[in-house]
Amino acid sequence: MKTKAIVFLINCIVLIFNCSVSVVAQSAMTNVSGRHCISLNGKWQSIPDPTGIGNWREVWKDRKPQKKTDFVEYSFEGSPLLNVPGDFNTQMPELTYMEGTVWYKKTFTNRLKSGNRLFIHFGAVNYKADVYLNGNLIGSHEGGFTPFQFEITKVLKDGINTIVVKVNNNRAADGIPGTGYDWFNYGGITRDVNLIETETTFIEDYFVQLKKHSMNEVLGWVKLNGNQLSQKVSVKIPELGIDFKTQANAEGLAEVKFSSKFNLWSPENPKLYELIIQSETDTITDNIGFRSMETKGAQILLNGKPVFLKGVNIHEENPYRAAKAFSESDALTLLNWAKELGCNFVRLCHYPHNEYMVKLAEKMGLMVWDEIPVYQHIEFASPGVTDKMSLMLKEMIRRDRNRCGVFLWSIANETYATTPNRNQALIDLSKVCRQQDSTRLITTVLCSQGYENNTFNVWEKLYNYFDVMSVNEYLGWYSPWQGKPADVKWKLVCSDKPMIISEFGGEALFGSNFGPKDEADSWSEEYQEQIYKDQIEMFGTTPNLAGVCPWLLVDYRSLGRMHPLKQGGWNRKGLLSDRGEKKKAWHILKTYYNGIKNEY
Question: Which residues of the chain have pLDDT under 50?
Fold first, then answer.
C-alpha cells in the first residue's frame, strides 16, 4: 500500500512539473501576410474543461485505447467543432459565460521543403495558451491580444502532425488586464493561426520609417534570423526609384538609411508605397507609408502642420453578431462607421486590436491610437506584473511599428495614483516604449483629475513623462455639471503639452426617445444628445485641446452593466446601437467634426 502511495505521489510531482515548465513564446516575425503561410484556420475539435481536470488527464496526449481493457475519459473524436479564429463563448450556448479552459485540436500534413524552417504563428489567444505538438509541450504564452510563435522545424513528424492548444481565459489578479474590466472576456483562439515556412536564414523583422523630425530621411534597420547572417541586403521602393543596398553584420542587423521626396501619408492622402526587402536568401514585400508626427507646445503636428484629432473609441466586437471581431470584414464594418462619422483617427481600446484593423485604418486614412491592456486595477507591485506589461508593449510595437497610421502608443488607461508602485511602473514603461520606437508620440490615459467649482484640476505629474495628456471625463454622466459648459476652467499640470479628451459621453438606449433632457435615469437619446451638445460647447473654451474622442462608437457587451431594462449586459454609451442604428448624439458629433478642417 505504501509503495502504491509513493508511486502515485511521484507521478503527481512529475505531472505538476511537466505542466509548469514551458518554453516562452518567441517574438512573432513582422508582416505575417507577406510570408509563405499555410492557414490553420477553420474547424478545430474542442473539449470544454470547466473544472480544469484536463491537466490531470493529460488531454494534450490525445490518447486512444490500445487494449480491450483500456478506456480514456476524454476524446477529441466526436467533440464539438469550434471556428478558428473566433471566441468560444458565442459558438456554444453552454460556454456563453465561460471563463476557464477549452482544449483545441487540429491536424496538418508535414509538407516542409527540405532545408527550410517551419513556425506556427498565432495572431492572439485569450488569455493563456499552452501549445503542444504531437503530445509534447512546445511553449506557452500569456496575453490575450498580441501575436506569438514557435519554431517546430525539428519536432515535426513525417506525415500527419497534431496541434493541441490549451486555452484559458480566467481573469487573474496579476494578469494584464486584471480581474476587473468593462468589456466582455471573450476566450479562445481569437485570431488567425498560420504555419509559416521560411528559408534557413530569413528576414525576421525590419523598421522602415521616417527619422524623427524629418520628412524626407528614412532611418531604420533589417534583422535576419538564421545561420548565414552576414548577408547583403537591399531595400527597394520601385515607385521612387530607390534601391538602397546595405550589409548585415555578424548578428544579422543591417542599417537602413536613405532620403527621398515622399508623397506624405495623411488622412486626406493615405499614400502607401510598395516596399521590397531582399537578402541573399529571402524576399519580403510590404506596403509602407511615410509621415511625420510630433508636438510643438500645445499642438500636435502632422507633417509639420497642426492637426485637430477627431476620433472615436472602438472595442473589438462585431455588434451584429455580439461576438469578437476578428476578420477583415469585421474591421471594415467598424472603420466605415468611423469614416462616416468624420473621424481622422480611431482609438483601439483597451488592447491591441486585430492586425486587420490597423492595416485597413491606415489604408482608409485613419490614424491609429494603439494601446496595451494596463487597465484600472492593475497590481503594479505584484511580482512579474511589470515584466508582463513590458512584454505586451514590445509585442504590440513589434507588430505595428511599420504602420505609419499608428501615431500614438498608449501604455495604460485609468490607472490610480493610490495603487502601490503605479507611478514608477508607468515611468519605467514609458522608457521602454521610447527605446522600442522613438518616432511616435506616447501617452497614458488618466481620469484622476479633480472637478470642483466648475474647474478641472489635471494635477498628475506623471504626464511629464509623456508627449500628450489624455484625460477621461464624463461631465453630464458620472459627474454633474457645476456651471455652464462654456465656463469650465482648466488647471493643467503641463501647460506646454497638448491634451486629448480621450473619453466622454453617456448612456442611451436606442429608441428611448422623448425622455427628459435633464434626467440621466431616463436613459433617453435626448439626454445623451444634450451631453454631446454641452461637451462641444466646453471644447470651444478648453485650453491645449488637440483632439477629442468620445466613448464610444457602438454599444458593446459588458457583464457589469446590470440594468435589466436599459442595459441588459451592454454598455449603452455607443453613438450607434448594437444593431448599428444611429442615436441622436451621432448627428451632433458628425456635424461638429465636419465643421473642423485640417490642412496637412
Answer: 1-22
